[in-house]
Write a structure and sequence with these properties.
The protein is of the alpha+beta class. It has two domains: 2-37 and 116-293 and 332-451, Up-down Bundle (Outer membrane efflux proteins (OEP)), CATH 1.20.1600; 38-74 and 79-115 and 294-331, no CATH class. The protein has eleven helices and seven strands. The protein has helices spanning 2-11, 13-33, 119-122, 124-187, 194-228, 256-266, 268-290, 310-315, 337-404, 410-444, 448-451, and strands spanning 39-51, 60-74, 79-90, 100-112, 294-302, 305-307, 323-331. Strands 1, 2, 3, 4, 5, 6 and 7 form a seven-stranded antiparallel sheet that branches. A hairpin with a 4-residue loop joins strand 2 (60-74) and strand 3.
Length: 460
Amino acid sequence: MGEALVMAFEGNPALAVERLTPDIRRTYEATEQAVFDPVLAGSLSRSRGRAELSATPHDAITDQTNGAFAVREFLPTGTTVELGAAAQYSGAPAGGGDAQFATGPQLTVTQALLQGAGRDVNLIRLQQARLSTFASEHELAGFAEALAAEVETTYWELTLAARRIEIFTESLKIAEQQLQETRERIQVGKLAETEQAAAEAEVAGWREQLIRARGDLAKTRLQLLHLLSPSGPDMWSRQPVLKDRATVPGITLGAVETHVALALTNRHDLEEARLRLKSGELDIVSTRNGLLPKLDLFIQLGKTGYAGSFFRSAENIGREDYNLMAGLTFQWPLGNRDAQASHRRATLNQEQMQLALTNLERLVELDVRSAYVDIERAREVVTASAATSRLRQETLRAETEKFRVGRSTTLLVAGAQRDLASSQITEEEARVGLLEAFTSLYRLEGTLLSQRGIAVPGGR
């Protein structure tokens, strides 16, 4: 069984698809972090114009070249800082004069005071991206747990199918022996010829059962191969080697409340729902901030040097003259219905997710308690079916001895054989059912992977 689980986790194509999801979600974290990356911007332009002036003999000709660059960064506090420099070249006027260069740096700081102010608001999308990544890891762990449970269940179903073939093969062998004895007794006159038809029908019936069982085995084998996806050519022709047989596990269960508590702590779908709930809480914070008006404070400080050459204009920046501007910008949509609707929607979504989480917790408890009952019932069925098989074995032995001394009929022996085969299959089904019930309980309480020593992202 352990080898089957390892093979499934290495080769199952559906699991390979799911493994990519956390990495894909993680790229959204980088996208949200990029909001706070510095941005380098620049521009370069050239303009030239000509206009006729009636008051002078010369036309007005403008010739300008402008260049600028700046580094801008948005901080989580809601602050935007931009530091840059600009240079301008103005050609000599047509009526005389010198060309002029203007050069200078400029610093602009803008701070959000209401809407968009503070780390709590501006880091929300990044926090939600991280929560989404964590949720995808729990989703992957839940998928892996479901895969492990399906592999185990299919493995035990394959052992059951193999056991059915063994039982039907043995029953067919006994029926053929019974047919041979019936023919011999008819030849010596100890049985009527009508007994032969019943014996032949019994042989045909067991052959039919064996054909059906082989078909079931072949389909179950294909299903297990699909789950395991072993490497190498011609996967579908591989024959799984069943090293483990269905035996009654000597496992003592704790109180059902203990298993319920484990499920409420470890179930990956619950953890995923709780993370979605946290993301919804962040939506409320974000939309509540959106109800505020947009009020920003800005401060702009710059210096400019003028000269007839670029380098001299740069040297003149050090003079005491400067440009300083400060002010406020305000924006408020009248009615503010969009922000109010967004906040109302976020609040209702949060309430809905909370109710859904409460309902999911109740369903989880129901699942665990039901699985616990299934195990207790399966154990009793195993004990009862084993006793039935022993009694049916004794009944067949007695009926066969009576047939040999002429005190029974072919039909009675055949009926006893059918009863024995049915009880043997029921006994094997009970053992497999108990093993599958344990697998189901571990899956429903979220501990199947840890029980099997398997670690995946999002697992505990």
